[in-house]
Each structure stands twice: as structure tokens, then as C-alpha cells.
Fold each of these.
Amino acid sequence: MTRIALVTGGSRGIGAAISEALKAQGCTVAATYAGNDEKAAAFTKETGIKTYKWNVGDYEACKAGIAQIEADLGPVDILVNNAGITRDAPFHKMTPQHWHEVMDTNLNGVFNMTHNVWNGMRERKFGRIVTISSINGQKGQFAQANYAATKAADIGFTKALAQEGARAGITVNVVAPGYINTEMMSTIPEKVMNEVILPQIPVGRLGEASEIARAVAFLASDDAGFITGSTLSANGGQYMS
Ligand code: CAA
């Protein structure tokens, strides 16, 4: 049976790797993106995966976008909440704007997307929700009070919703990546990366997006029906919870 999968932020970075892994697993995949039309068009051209543009922080945009995808491809069986941003600053320099931008995308986005696929999954008695959290939601991180708050919230959200979805055939899980070799790392000063972050990773390297995608594809598969409410950490041994 071909499953329909929707990946937010699915045309770049970890999201692109997830979209491709789900496609390789036999899913029909739709990927959302927020801003970069050129990259999204190139991704569609290269992979054949359709891309749709909207801001996951906007509830009505999520509702309309999901309705469009369901009209184009069919009901969404798998939702991967991957879209996320950073606005890093030490707390004494963090502005309300830094705080709210991260809340809107990383946390409200998870609500907006999940809420708009939930009833359909309940009616069809099947669903897979996988949310991309972060090691920094598990252990905290200097300059990320905003980001860490949203990524910790993903875990509470997932544990609550897993209980509600269980009888309806819906599993709800988290994948918590460590430091992965994507564009997001380019905001970290080189000195901080080399002297602070890399020495804390026991495997001695950043992770690859494909290594996160494989974990997501497993949790999204029909085979993973007994796994729900879990947090799968993929961080090279940097933090063991
Ligand atoms: N851990 C420990 N110390 C850190 C640090 C970190 N990750 N990042 C910065 N610092 C230190 C700096 O080395 C510097 O110390 P010194 O003054 O002793 O040199 C100090 O904090 C910087 O303080 P400033 O007040 O000057 O900070 P700033 O206003 O210039 O802000 C910054 C700089 C935004 C904090 C920048 O250093 C930065 O981006 N750091 C990286 C933060 C980080 O690790 N973010 C994680 C991104 S990865 C991610 O989010 C993906 C994921 O899920 C894993």
C-alpha cells in the first residue's frame, strides 16, 4: 500500500533527506518549504517530489495547504514535523522577536500541522507522526533558551498525543538529532564548533542528514506500529538520556 507522507521543511537539509528516504521506502511524498523557491524547484526537479510553499506558523495556511496536498495526492498517512529555525542569542541579548519567531515555527508549527491531519488519521485508523526535536531540547544549550524550549516541548507534546492516538492506530514519536552537517551549522562560529562542540561528540564528527532520515523512515513505516511516545536520540553519543 502506498502511503502519503508530508514533510515540513522537506526540501532542504535534514528534511530533504527525510523526503528522499520516505520516497525510497515507497511513499508518495509532499514537502513543504517556507521561502527558498529556487532550492525547492531544484529539489523537485532532481527528486520528482512535489513541493508546496507556506508558513507552518500560520494555522489557516496549514489547513489550506494540507487540503491541497490531499486533493493532489490523497489523505496524509505520515506527517514529519521537521521545519525548524534558530535565532540563537545569550538570554540577556534575546529579544521578544527572537523568542516568538522560534515559537511560531518550531512549536506552533507542530500544533498547526498535526491538528490538521489528526482527525483524518483517526477516521482512517492509521497515522504516523514523527517530530524532529533536538539534543538541545534534551540537555539545554547556551544561547538557545528559545530553541531548547520548543524542542523540549516536542517531547511532551508527543508523549501526550501518543496516548490519544494509540487506540486509533496512530503512533507519535520524536527523533532527537545531535549536531548534523547541514546549513544550520553555518550560524555557529568556527571557534565554537571546533573548540566547544566537536570535542563533546564521542564519535568525533557531525552526523549526516541521511543518518537522521533512516531513523525517521523506520518510525514512519508500517512495521513500527508498537513504538509510540518514544524519543529516538541520534547524536553520536553526545547525550544519553
Ligand atoms: N557553548 C559554550 N559557550 C558558547 C557557546 C556554546 N555553544 N556558544 C558561544 N559560547 C561562548 C563564546 O565562546 C563566547 O565566550 P567568550 O566570551 O569566553 O569568548 C561567549 O559565549 C559569547 O558571548 P557573547 O555575549 O559575545 O555572544 P554573542 O552575542 O556574540 O552571541 C552566539 C554569539 C550567538 C552565542 C554564537 O556564539 C553562537 O551562535 N554560538 C553557538 C550556539 C549554539 O551552539 N547553537 C546550537 C546551534 S545547532 C542547532 O541548533 C541544531 C541542533 O538542534 C543541534
Note: The pocket of acetoacetyl-coenzyme A is lined by residues 86, 88-90, 93, 134-136, 141-144, 147, 178-179, 184, 187-189, 192, 196 (CB under 6 Å).
Amino acid sequence: MNQAANANLFSLLFDGVDDPKRLAIETHDGALISYGDLIARAGQMANVLVARGVKPGDRVAVQVEKSVANIVLYLATVRAGAVYLPLNTAYTLNELDYFIGDAEPSLVVCDPSKAEGLAPIAAKVNAKVETLGPDGKGSLTEAAEKASSEFTTVPRSSDDLAAILYTSGTTGRSKGAMLTHDNLASNSLSLVDYWRFTDKDVLIHALPIYHTHGLFVATNVTLFARASMIFLPKLDPDLIIKLMARATVLMGVPTFYTRLLQNPALSRDTTKHMRLFISGSAPLLADTHREWSARTGHAVLERYGMTETNMNTSNPYDGERVPGAVGFPLPGVSVRVTDPETGKELPREEIGMIEVKGSNVFKGYWRMPEKTKSEFRPDGFFITGDLGKIDGKGYVHILGRGKDLVISGGFNVYPKEIESEIDAMPGVIESAVIGVPHADFGEGVTAVLVCNKGADVTEAGVLKALDGRLAKFKMPKRVFVVDELPRNTMGKVQKNILRDTYKDIYAKK
Ligand code: AMP
């Protein structure tokens, strides 16, 4: 095989499989899928894709529930040299109209219940429609079962696209991040090493697979290591704790850890077979980190990544896993912090824009050359949009998205700094600090809290406790207590929703 053929992620994942009988995926209802099965099923599915007219470089847009068949579709698309384009299962037809119009796929795969509604949308770009249900049944698998499993993996160069993932786009249009075979392969291989994955590992996989975390980090890392994963449709704390008796790794968003902590069955004993708990996609509260260590004896390993960059940093496997920090740049990844205005690199401990460079970083935004250009520095660093710092020991800390920065009376207020103060108060579970329009200050610092049931937390009490601990310009002008913070499916607090809810509170009467 020549060099080009080797760069196809599918070849890199599977060419060296020496034991096809080795278990790759086990489902919650007991189905066992070996590496050999995966390869054969990906061959059948790739033949169907080609028969439906999918050519190398074509996009295959997929909005289906998590299932083994969906993973097979991902692998088959890559194997056929096409571009896998997963879409959040929550998207409505109206939203799909934008994504399909923008990506112009040659094939759209959807849940059988959505096929009728999607047909006219797909027709606008001449895309065919096939179905795939959560049970793995549909027109696509029906055809695949009859197809040959022999398929010659389409040669791809490392710079060819393997996937496009649309960013969640809480402000402005959602952008398609173009990810190459090398972006995905190099990052997963680096994580296998950094997190010490081996063929003995059993991963509990309860994440969605339309997002980089569940699709690339969890799935590719497991498959590269020849490990296996237990596929769960969603977070089910009772079942996860039961599975820990024979699993070794859990990858989750912070909500997984807070929900598991609420379960009385979580203990040192029930987690003793596990070797690693990984968290990412949203900030893990330092308190959750400490509580987890106290309850289980395991320090959660927090890492930082994004759709556009795959994984950038990780707390160490052996060294100290610092609560509230996202660790060190992964091997091959350069991270720097710069002045957001001038782009000049800042010294350690100073807060600025996090920029990254490495083979993990995407190729650009789909059909948005100007946007792509404006997000990269001339020396190739990608401007992440995250504000943070690198501390004296080299650990990276994230202080929030740049767009969440509050500017009050001309001063920069970093929400995380205030949230950390508030989160440490008795009775407070978590908080979100936002800026909302204020007639005198431009933006008024506003805190929204979630507290323990029955806790005596009041606005006056919080303000009194903060007085003297924070500079006056950082002090919240109002404090609200709510039952829960709005979150998206990856556990990220949706500050845009909060800003909207409280947008009129400082309006002049
Ligand atoms: P996404 O593209 O949906 O994966 O979102 C990426 C964004 O999630 C990053 O730019 C960060 O703002 C945030 N993020 C990811 N991991 C972490 C983490 N460990 N701590 C804080 N924020 C994180």
C-alpha cells in the first residue's frame, strides 16, 4: 500500500488488526461486535454508499440516534473517502435546512420518522435520503445486509477531509469545522499514549456521537488502542455504577460527575476496578473534583478541547491533576496566551486569549475563507476564543469564552474569578456570572446561583460575603437564585439564554 492509502483514518485504525475476534463494542442490550464485525459491516455500508452515488470528498449528513449502525456509518463514510457530517439529533427541520443547504451533501441519513419532512430539503441540493433508526434498522442497513463486505479503502492523503462538525453556534451562524484524516488520527494516537490506553481497557461510552467528545475522543481512542467500549444510549447513573465493576475508563462531561455524585451507590468500593475518569467539554467545578476524590479515591483527569482543534491540553496521567485547571499542552500541540488586541504573547499568569497550533487543529471553516483567515494568526496559531492563562507550573486554566467576558465601567471582569468566589460559599452548588446591558456601566455584573435545597442563601448575604474579597468593579450588581442553570447536551451552561432572561433588569425606568 502506498503512503497516500495509509493516511485514510480507516486504514490507520484497522489495517493492523491482528485478532478480528477481539471485542470492539458491547451494547447496553448485550450485542457483541468484534473488530472483524466492524470492518466487515463498514465494508458492506461503504458499498451501499458508493451504490447511492457517494464519491470521495462528498459529504454524508447524518442525523440519527446513537447506535452501532451509526458508528458503522461513520467508519464506512471515512473508508469510502467521503466526509462524515453528524448533526445534533435535537435539530429541527428548519435548522436542518440551513446545514444541508450549506454542506450540500450527496446523501442525507435520518431517522425513519424524519424522512418525509427532510425529502424536500434534501431535494434542493440533489441529495438522496436513506433512513437509520435507533434500533439500527432502516433503508440503509437493509441494503447493507445484502451488500458485500469486501471493499478497498479509498486512498486519502493526510490533508483530505474525514469529517465536518458544525459548531454549536450560540452567536451567529453555525460554522462547519473541516477535520482532516491527520487531525483525527494524530490527536487520538497522542491521547492513547497520554492516557495510557491499552487493549485491556473497557470504556463506558454514554456520550452522544454527533459531537467531537463521543465520536472522536471516545471512539477513535478506544479503537486505536484495540480496547472495547460499552455503548449506552445516554447517561444512566445506576447502570454506569454497575458497569464500573468490569470497566476501566469513563469519559464524561461535568454533568456526568455531578449526577453520579448524587447516587448513594458511588463509593471507593464500586469504583475500585476503574483506572481513569476523564472530564471535558465544559468546566468541571473544583468542588466536584474534590468531592469525587474524597468519595472514590480517584482524581478526575480534566482535559480541554474544542470541535475545531480536537484535544489541546490534558492534566497528567501520573502528576498532579489540579482541580479547576485543564493541564498541559498535549505532545505536538503548542499553546500560548496572547493579548486579545495586539496578539502579543503574554507572560505566565497573565490572562489573555488562548491560541493553539499543531496537527490537531482543523483545516478551516467550510466555505468561509474570510472567517477562517480571521481566526488564525499569520504564524498558524488558531485563536480559540477562550480566555485563560498558563500558571507558573505550566498548567493551562480557562477563564471562560471571550464573548462571555463582562466589560463593566470599562473594566474587564472575568466571570470565572467571581464564580469561583461564589461557588466556595456554603450552600452554593454553582453559579454563572454574566454581563447584561446597564445604562451607566455598559454592562452590569450579574450572578445567577444554584443552591442546595433549604440553604439560606440571599442576595444580601452573597454581596456581603464578596465585599472586601473582590474589587468594587467586579462586584455583582444583582444576585439571583434559580433552581438550575440552562445547559446544552454537552453540559455547557448557556450564558446566552441567561443574558436574554435578565436583559432588562438594569434598564432605566
Ligand atoms: P465544543 O466545540 O462544543 O467542544 O466546545 C468547545 C469549548 O468548550 C471550548 O472552546 C471551551 O470553551 C469549552 N471547554 C471544553 N473543555 C473545557 C474544559 N475542560 N474546561 C472549560 N471549558 C472547556
Note: Residues 1-5 have pLDDT under 50 and may be disordered.
